[in-house]
Amino acid sequence: MAAAMIAFAVGAGFPAGAAAAPKNYCTELKGIASGGVCRIQLTDPGYTVDISFPTDYPDLKPVADYISKTRNDFINAARGSEQREMASALSITGQKYGSLIPPRGTTGMVLTTYQNTGAARPQTSYKSFNWDQAYRKPITWETLWQPKADPLPAVFGIVQADVNAQAGKPVPISPEAGLDPANYQNFAVTNDGVIFFFSQGTLLPAAAGALQVLAPRSAIDPMLA
Q1: Which domains does the chain show, CATH number per domain?
Q2: Residue 130's closest CA among 182, 190, 179?
Q3: What is the pLDDT along the chain (225 residues), one digit of tens a residue?
Q4: How far, in Å, CA of 174 to CA of 146, rounded?
Q5: Contact 196, 212 (CB under 8 A)
Q6: Beta strand pairing status for 211-216 and 88-99?
Q7: Is 118 left (phi over 0), alpha (psi -120 to 50) or beta?
Q8: Is the omega angle on the peptide bond into residue 216 within 30 degrees of 0, that is, cis?
């Protein structure tokens, strides 16, 4: 991480010796780093918090910002709620992904967030972060594809077929949801393809749970940037 920061400083025209020390985002989040993983654990009579994420992702600031906001919002809500028999629970787990297939290597992290605040149903959601190793910048849905590509019809078809296969029966996804790029913002690039992560209630009713679908490279590779 430190070497990457120094390399960036030199490339940007700053002397290597003038590069500021990289932030320790784990410490800022009041976590403990060990073995390349930051762990944050809080226990209170009204709630529990259990967070872990890899510390070697190249662009940790947005990861830390997301975790900080999610944790703080959860704690504020838990403290403001009435006394419950069971404490509220927040769990955030980070999983690393990556691809070495040309023309660019990628690395990514997907945070799986589980929240139980006493509502009718606990909620599972996803937040992804992807990094272009060649160009040293984030990868978004828009930059994932070739400029003139139209990936949504193909990806939606893959997702619909996979959902049907997982359920063992047809489970129609509305075209309004299935063809909305806003619903495909959370993904991870791998050697096998692109895994799309759908939080509860994104494509199907919340009762269906959270979904993960792999779009294989054989089906989408010509459209990838």
Answers
A1: 1-137 (3.30.565.40), 140-225 (3.90.640.20)
A2: 190
A3: 444 433 433 344 434 444 556 789 999 999 999 999 999 999 999 999 999 999 999 999 999 999 999 999 999 999 887 666 678 999 999 999 999 998 789 999 999 999 998 766 799 999 999 999 999 999 999 999 999 999 999 999 999 999 999 999 999 999 999 999 999 999 999 999 999 999 999 999 999 999 999 999 999 999 999
A4: 26
A5: yes
A6: unpaired
A7: left
A8: no
- Tell me the C-alpha distance between 114 and 122, whole Å: 7
Q: Are 108 and 98 contacting, i.e. CB atoms less than 8 angstroms apart?
A: yes
The answer to whether the Cα torsion of 158, 177, 123, 96 is positive or negative is: positive
